[in-house]
Design a protein that fits this description.
The chain has a single domain, classed as Purple Acid Phosphatase, chain A, domain 2, CATH 3.60.21.10. The protein contains 8 helices and 15 strands. α1 crosses α7. The longest helix has 14 residues. The two termini are 23 Å apart.
Length: 321
């Protein structure tokens, strides 16, 4: 059974080309801020506050350390060992027609970190049973505009997914990706919402821009949403959980943390890169009536290795009380 989405925020002008159409729906002030911040964050002379993560640099020294310790190849193998996790989600307001609805959740793909990773990912995604797919940001570690390699990777991924793929941008993603993503078929939500319909019932699926680095997430669109309906929020990181709970959102899907990526035995993350409680760094969590899930991500960032933090693909099974 197919599910349709009502994207009332899209105003289609047949005279515009696809690239213009994708960018024209964005608020001009938002677009200027996003592009300005992207340029600012590219500046290597930016003064950064000290953090624990700053101890993990430079990259070459860390790589040499893990190789000398005989751990590098083990960590690399760990990063390719994708796990399929099944997560049951109980939602009070879930419409009866959506009982058993399945959401495939991908996050932090970083498709450019290793040339063989896309094949491992595609193999893991084939023949999975789900209703819609969502991707909560960070397609690449270093996106290059008009890169044929990056465009090919996005196409390869889309071709093994269903035709209903909803995505939000992460802290590694550029707004320049928007036209390419939408031309391929991805449905990008940037402070926007759609209805997912099943027969005569629907739920709301919304998505916001990256709340971690760019912090241009904006819930103004929520003013026009019917708050009596069950709603699912896509965001790159879990850091806006309080706002989501205040708005009455039912399910919050996110990523960004990689589950720590390099953790101590027992899975304790050394670095989380988030401004939120550690219980929200990976897996299922709850805040008041809000149900959340933070994906450990499918890919890796900075170093192509993982320890005590398994990469994952997750299928959320929505169930009503």
């Amino acid at each position: 059974m197919k599910f349709a989405s009502n994207a009332a925020f899209l105003k289609i002008d047949p005279q515009q080309d696809n690239d213009q159409l994708s960018l024209s729906r964005l608020d001009e002030n938002y677009l200027k801020k996003r592009l300005g911040l992207e340029e600012q964050f590219k500046n290597p002379n930016l003064v950064k506050k000290f953090s624990i993560s700053s101890l993990l640099k430079p990259k070459k020294c860390l790589t040499r350390f893990f190789k000398m310790a005989g751990l590098y190849h083990k960590g690399l193998a760990n990063s390719f060992a994708l796990n399929l996790n099944e997560n049951n989600v109980l939602l009070k307001r879930l419409p009866r027609k959506f009982n058993g609805f399945k959401i495939l959740h991908l996050s932090d793909l970083h498709l450019d970190m290793h040339k063989y990773y896309i094949e491992v990912l595609k193999q893991s995604l084939r023949r999975l049973d789900y209703d819609i797919c969502v991707i909560t940001g960070d397609f690449f570690s270093h996106y290059k505009k008009e890169s044929r390699q990056h465009d090919c990777l996005l196409n390869e991924l889309f071709n093994v997914l269903s035709d209903q793929v909803y995505v939000v941008l992460g802290n590694h993603d550029s707004i320049d990706m928007l036209p390419t993503l939408e031309n391929i078929g991805y449905k990008v939500l940037i402070n926007e919402a759609v209805h997912i319909n099943r027969e005569n019932q629907s739920i709301i699926l919304s998505g916001v821009d990256d709340p971690h680095l760019f912090r241009l997430n904006d819930f103004k669109y929520y003013r026009s949403i019917d708050r009596t309906k069950c709603s699912v929020l896509l965001a790159h990181s879990p850091e806006i959980y309080k706002q989501a709970a205040y708005l009455g959102i039912d399910l919050y899907l996110c990523g960004h943390t990689h589950g720590g990526q390099i953790c101590l035995p027992g899975g304790f993350p050394i670095v989380t890169h988030t401004r939120c409680p550690r219980k929200m760094v990976k897996g299922s969590w709850k805040y008041n009536d809000l149900v959340g899930y933070t994906s450990s991500g499918s890919g890796v960032s900075y170093l192509p290795i993982r320890f005590h933090s398994k990469p994952e693909i997750c299928i959320h099974h929505l169930k009503s009380f």
